[in-house]
Design a protein that fits this description.
The complex is a heterodimer of chains A (349) and B (246). Chain A has 349 residues and is of the alpha/beta class. Chain A has two domains: 99 residues, abc type-2 transporter like fold; 196 residues, no CATH class. Chain A has 13 helices and five strands. In chain B, helix 6 links the parallel strand 7 and strand 8.
Chain lengths: 349, 246
């Protein structure tokens, strides 16, 4: 036990003394959340629009009022002809235009250079105006494109959690272990009476702790900054995160057994872990829209199951009994990966 | 004299490649044993088997009285090891490195404190206690690494090219530490490239292509090979090597 204690202390020194890495590790979740929450958002706030009213009907004013009342639109001006609308679009002054024809046809125009945004604007406008629309002959002038992020504004919070945990637990652990190999200190440790399993456990402990801190940071940020409610049990979310972190740790361990340089470990972590988490976990692109081959591949991405489960608990407020399948899959992945890497670890040494 | 290392036709094969080919030798207690050979001759593989890092393909070996097949854990408790790469942690302070390895080898807090003072005094590092190992000169790092490798007073210490890259004066100082350890009864098993160091050993073996081609005291070897120094002995043997130097 004293062996283990002195070893864990050493790992903490390594991490705490590497100020740059430490800063990145602690700031990254904050940056990612803010980035996804504010910068990379398709939520449309205060979008300027114009109205071309050829019907001179009072109902048009009701339309404008309703749009104005929402936080998504503000009236830029009223215009008197179509050319004006075109000019304003070109100058980037407006993002949407309402055209009401003398026969009470309602046309909504949106700048489709950013198709996602255009689609979102029109969907928002449609939703806001739905009560009024029945009185108009409604027609759309853009094709709606599927916008995955439209489904939920808080889709990305579980995604960021999945990303951070993989990054810290898998990448940092694998790099940490490979670094010892590269430096030659691993040999010294293996010749010592210290059991390899303790070496690995001691390596993983600080990263597990840091990633828990990160999860809590993310949850706090999403709750109080992004106002994403945590409907389900927070303990269940944390428990799931620990399970997923263990999967990530065992992945990191496996990577460390197949590489000899830090660069290689880093590269493999990126290609094998980070990219699938971002592309195949459903975090950004919806899995159901992928070709079947990618859907099958997505099944072996642990982040997919974690994100599904966290969404269920955090956003839908479901209990543990509904996510048994995800828990089971993650547990199975953990056991398999650990067994594999323990086996490989022995062969190597 | 008691033997602390005994091998009998010890062999290690990787596929069809025989890295170590039936080597048999004994190392006596307290001896400084030089394990020489060109790069790729099989020194490191042989040493790894003795340290319990690698399981032999065939043959027998006992280290500190323990079997290398079955009692690897026991062996590990009775040996120290210093690798050819530098074996301390650069981002830990001098005293923290000492404490870490003391802890790994199960020394008590008191013992670690005593050892720390002893090392710092013996190496003249008292003023460097809180220095990051990173900023120590290479020679000091190596001396500290050796001290740490014998912190638990092992029966045998294995040194894998411990003095690479330092000047002859520093190497000489390093060998003073080996002599001191030897005087305390610690057996030294050392691989080296430097033939002047081979002269410092009590006995040496020279490996060529996985086999031990010569095994004796340096002075006896010089007579056998009619050589003026160990360098000539080594070259007379190494010339026979078939394997391409890696």
């Amino acid at each position: 036990m004293r062996q283990f204690g002195s070893f864990i202390r050493k790992e903490f020194y390594h991490i705490l003394r590497d100020k740059r890495t430490m800063t990145i590790l602690l700031l990254m979740p904050i940056i990612l959340i803010i980035l996804f929450g504010y910068a990379i958002t398709t939520e449309i706030k205060q979008s300027p629009f114009v109205v071309l009213d050829n019907s001179f009907d009072t109902r048009t004013n009701q339309l404008i009022e309703q749009l104005q009342a929402s936080e998504y639109f503000t009236l830029y001006s009223k215009v008197s002809n179509v050319e004006e609308i075109e000019n304003l679009f070109r100058q980037g002054k407006i993002r949407m235009a309402l055209v009401v024809s003398p026969t009470n046809d309602l046309q909504i125009l949106a700048d489709a250079t950013d198709p996602n945004e255009a689609a979102a604007l029109i969907q928002y406008a449609q939703a806001i105006l739905s009560s009024q629309l029945s009185t108009f002959n409604f027609q759309l002038s853009t094709h709606l494109l599927y916008n995955p992020q439209m489904k939920s504004a808080y889709n990305f919070v579980p995604g960021v959690m999945g990303l951070i945990l993989i990054l810290i637990c898998a990448m940092m652990t694998s790099v940490g272990i490979v670094k010892e190999k590269e430096m030659g200190t691993m040999e010294v440790l293996l010749v010592s009476p210290m059991k390899p399993v303790y070496i690995v456990l001691a390596k993983a402990t600080p990263y597990l702790l840091i990633s828990l801190i990160n999860i809590i940071t993310i949850l706090l940020l999403s709750r109080f900054l992004l106002e994403v409610p945590i409907v389900g049990s927070i303990w269940l979310v944390l428990g799931l995160s620990v399970l997923y972190a263990l999967v990530a740790l065992s992945l990191g361990l496996l990577i460390s057994t197949i590489t000899d340089t830090q660069q290689a470990a880093m590269l493999i972590s990126w290609v094998v872990l980070m990219l699938p988490v971002m592309l195949l976990s459903g975090m950004i692109f919806p899995i159901e829209n992928m070709p079947w081959i990618l859907q099958i591949i997505s099944d072996i991405v642990p982040a997919k199951w974690y994100i599904i489960a966290v969404k269920d608990v955090m956003i839908k407020g479901l209990g543990a009994e509904t996510i048994l399948k995800e828990i089971g899959i993650l547990a199975l992945m953990f056991v398999t990966l650990t067994a594999l890497s323990v086996k490989r670890f022995k062969i190597r040494l | 004299m008691k033997n602390v290392i005994e091998t009998d036709r010890l062999t290690k094969r990787f596929g069809i490649f025989t890295a170590v080919d039936q080597i048999s030798f004994e190392v006596e207690e307290g001896e400084i044993f030089g394990f020489l050979g060109a790069n790729g001759a099989g020194k490191t593989t042989a040493m790894r088997m003795l340290c319990g890092l690698s399981v032999p393909t065939s043959g027998k070996a006992r280290v500190a009285g323990f079997d290398v097949y079955k009692q690897q854990e026991e062996i590990k408790k009775h040996i120290g090891y210093m690798s050819q790469k530098f074996s301390l942690y650069n981002d830990l302070k001098v005293w923290e490195n000492i404490r870490l390895f003391g802890g790994i080898y199960g020394l008590s807090k008191k013992q670690i404190a005593a050892k720390t003072e002893e090392f710092l005094y013996a190496l003249g590092l008292e003023s460097e206690r809180d220095t990051m190992v990173n900023s120590l000169p290479l020679g000091w790092k190596q001396k500290l690494a050796f001290s740490v490798a014998v912190i638990h007073e092992p029966r045998i210490v294995f040194l894998d090219e411990p003095t690479g890259g330092v000047d002859p004066v520093t190497r000489r100082q390093f060998w003073e530490l080996i002599y001191q350890a030897s005087a305390r009864g610690i057996t030294t098993f050392v691989t080296t490239h430097y033939m002047d160091e081979a002269e410092y050993c009590n006995r040496v073996s020279i490996m060529v292509d996985g086999r031990i081609e010569a095994f004796n005291t340096p002075s006896a070897l010089k007579i056998t090979f009619k050589a003026n120094n160990m360098n000539e002995v080594f070259h007379a043997l190494a010339r026979k090597a078939q394997r391409i130097d890696n």
